[in-house]
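One chain shown below:
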Amino acid sequence: MAHFTRPQKVLFKHCDPAGIVFYPRFFEMINDTVESFFDEILGWPFEAIHPEAAVPTAAFNVAFKAPCRHGDQLDFTLTVQAIGRSSLSLRIEAVANRETRLQADQTLVHTGSTGRPAAWPSNIRKQIEALLAGPEGS
């Protein structure tokens, strides 16, 4: 079950001369999805995080399942898979017309002001754990 969905229309700026999404643009769209999740679901926008901390990506595993073309309407879904002391495992999928076009497994790491891994703030950890527990756990 997805914890967050963000729509994204494929724009001209996302495409290469062949008219399909240039793969680095997907990483921008994934980051937009993650940033929106932190803001809209966790109430912890990046502009509030970054003066003292960060949540950089430590790992990505991406499968490009089918091409996306200019004008396609994608739904990026984000599902929290697991939380560690300072890590967060996510699955992000881009779907258009009920077809998965991209699937990404991403690991974020919460870092403190020194740039080293730091435990998640307790209020953020509680919110993420509630998402993992699902409706029956709330």
In short: The radius of gyration is 16 Å. The domain at 4-133 is CATH 3.10.129.10 (Thiol Ester Dehydrase; Chain A).
